[in-house]
Design brief:
- By secondary structure, this protein is α+β, with helices and mostly antiparallel strands.
- The protein is about 45% helix and about 30% strand.
- The chain contains 9 helices and 12 strands.
- The strands form 3 sheets. Strands 1-8-3-6 form a 4-stranded antiparallel sheet. A 4-stranded antiparallel sheet has the order 2-7-4-5.
- A hairpin with a 2-residue loop joins strand 11 and strand 12.
Length: about 220
Amino acid sequence: MIEWLKKVSLFDNLNDEQLEHILRIAQRRTIPQGSLLFQEKELGHTFYVVLSGSIKLFTRSNNGEEKVLSLVNAGESFGELSLLDGRPRSASAQTLEPTTVLELSSDQFMELLQNHFDITKGILTELSRRLRKTNEHVNDLTFLDGRTRVLKNLITLANQNGNREGNIISIHMALNYDELAQMAGVTKAVLSDVLRELESRGVLTFGINEYKINLLKLRG
């Protein structure tokens, strides 16, 4: 478990004794695919660190339309916002596959922030990154066409989650077509058209819960 925690970016600068303390106060839980951890507008009491698997953060409109905001993978954390400002959850969280998390209560989370400046700094850095990402997404929706948004989203996911061997990047992907379209801000029809085009050019190949990008074909 110590080795798992060392892969979490927030805990980069903690020593083994400090990591063991986190393990003592946190609860580890394995959650089935499709489970809701919390829903938008609920009060938040828990901070999560993903050890394995993946989770989507999403919102729903008044008519029930879903919008995927982001994908959280192993080594990443979420759920801190409502603990910091005391307001309800700004999004819902659902597992995309069997997922193992560490859970810390609000009191435990605040204790960590008080005692470990590195973790506090990491939280602030992550919140700043998300704000920049939101601003960039608004800009994309305003100025980029649908095809470009799909391409940019695929490349972003590859940069965040991909494993590169030579000119091939393999990306584990538990999102379905609807969720990919929501992340890119396009209709499912537009997404399908772009994916078919990229597949026909040899840029993309698909497997079970993964896709591969051929960088040579992409540049061509």
